TrEMBL record:
CDD domains: nicotinamidase. InterPro entries: Isochorismatase-like_dom (IPR000868), Isochorismatase-like_sf (IPR036380), Isochorismatase_Nicotinamidase (IPR052347). Belongs to the isochorismatase family. It comes from Marinilabilia salmonicolor. This is Nicotinamidase.
Amino acid sequence: MNALLIVDVQNDFLPGGNLAVSQGNQIIPVINDLQKKFNLIIASRDWHPANHGSFASNHPGKKPGDNTVLNGLDQILWPDHCIQGSPGAELSSLLNQSLIHKIIFKGSNPEVDSYSAFFDNGHKIETELHQYLRKKGVKRLFITGLAADVCVWFTINDALKLGYETFLITDATKGVNMNPGDTEKALKDMEQKGANLISSEQVEDFM
């Protein structure tokens, strides 16, 4: 069984949002076309409380891009984003949502960040995603979304560890690049760990 996973295509990660990925909106038509090829589609959403510990605004004297320690884990600080119930937390209206079967919420615990759609950053709390995919008999996971060098990267690493045959669709993702070269570093790491990096035009060859 194949599944398409759409990671965090939310307004705050798109141009004009609080944590915008440059040209992030360009991947949406690609994802919409890809959805027509899959019988099972899942989307993840960052879903942070306003007091989330990853927000620089909750650390006096700190700014986005600074580092701190959150609940024993190294943590880069971000602008406020994807706050529960806010417009920025909504999936983009440009994304075809009618074919999405399941939405996975992550990042609700203010004491730990959750980049991956499978686990929080400390791997202590699991989302619904793995159990849902197991129940559906999914073996092969095709991953898209934002951002390539953060949430997509962490999601792919966990998918590989959990034993999924994992594909990153490279023209259906973009990186935020808080530091120059972050996306290239992430893509290289994913590939070295066993992810298959393919274009949207190649997807049907692997289904």
